[in-house]
Structures are given as C-alpha cells and as structure tokens.
Design a protein that fits this description.
Pectate Lyase C-like; 191 residues; little secondary structure
Length: 191
C-alpha cells in the first residue's frame, strides 16, 4: 500500500515531510491497518475513508474532514483533532485516549465502547453520539455539547468540567459509573 511505503520511508512524518498530506483529498481512501503515527493530515479530506484498525498515534487530524469515515478499532491515542469533523464517523472500539478533540464535531457517531480517558473534549459537539459504556475517566468536558447523546453505563471517573445541565441534555446516562459527587444520577424512566 502506498501510504505504508511512504510511512516506512519516513516521507510523510516529521516536521518537514517530503510528501505532505495536509489538505490532501483522500476521500474514500482505503487506509485500513496503516501505520500513520505522527503523520500530518491537517485539513485533509478523509470523508468516507476506511481507517479501521489503523495506528494513528499522535497523528495530526486538525480540521480534517472525517465525515462518515470508518475508524473502527483505530488507535487515535494522543491524536490532534482540533476542529475535526467526525459527523457520522464510526468510532466503535476506537482508542481516543489522550486525544485532543477540542471543538471537534462528533455528532451522531457510534463511539462504543470507546476509550476517551484523558481526552480533551472542550467545546466538542457530541450531540446524538452513541457513547454507551464509554470510558471518560479524567476527560475534560468543559462546554462539551451532549444533547441527546446516549451515555448509558459510561464511566466518568475524575472527569473535569461535567455539569448537571450537560447530563440532563443527554438521551440517557442511566447506570453511569463514578459520577462526580456534585452531580445527580439519571432518574428518568428507562426506555
């Protein structure tokens, strides 16, 4: 695969890559299983791309278009995803620990079960996202929109910035674990 060759040859990584992928049009590209560690996809069009099981550790996806991309099982730990558009992207079983998703759009995306430990979700839009069983421990949720998100059985250990208003705007957070002590449990009838 071309991307694997470019990565193995150190042509797409580092501060001055020989073959820049920033703003590249990779719509629908098949990158499944690719090692994309430290690659720069800033502003790239990866809509409908298949990045399943890819290794994207510390990858820059700042302002990237990932609408309806398949990121199932991708390792996005530590990825820089500020302002990325992940609307409808499949993030099932993705590792987003320590990812920077500030101001990212993740609305309507299945993210279950997801590892979002230590992720920065400040001002991110997670409206209608499926986050059942998500691990949100130590995540930052300042100003995160959770309107109609499904957070059943989510783990909120040591989460920062989570408010009762955010929880009350969700579709459900029934059976959530480790809610901060100042927040109430979901008392709405189960569906």
């Amino acid at each position: 695969m071309l991307i694997s060759f470019l990565y193995d040859s150190s042509l797409i990584t580092g501060t001055h890559p020989i073959v820049p992928l920033a703003k590249a049009d990779l719509q629908g590209a098949d990158l499944r299983g690719a090692n994309l560690r430290n690659a720069n996809f800033r502003g790239a069009n990866l809509s409908s791309a298949n990045l399943s099981r890819s290794g994207d550790i510390h990858t820059s996806l700042i302002e990237a278009n990932l609408i309806e991309a398949n990121l199932t099982g991708a390792d996005l730990s530590g990825a820089f995803m500020f302002g990325a558009d992940l609307e409808g992207a499949n993030l099932s079983r993705a590792n987003l620990s320590r990812a920077y998703l500030t101001s990212a759009r993740v609305d309507g995306s299945p993210i279950r079960p997801a590892n979002l430990r230590y992720a920065d979700l400040t001002e991110a839009n997670l409206d209608s996202a499926s986050l059942q069983d998500a691990h949100l421990g130590w995540a930052t949720l300042n100003g995160t929109s959770l309107l109609q998100a499904d957070l059943r059985r989510a783990d909120f250990a040591q989460t920062e910035g989570l408010t009762q208003d955010q929880l009350d705007s969700t579709a459900s957070y029934a059976h959530a674990h480790n809610l901060p002590s100042h927040l109430s449990r979901d008392t709405r009838p189960a569906e």
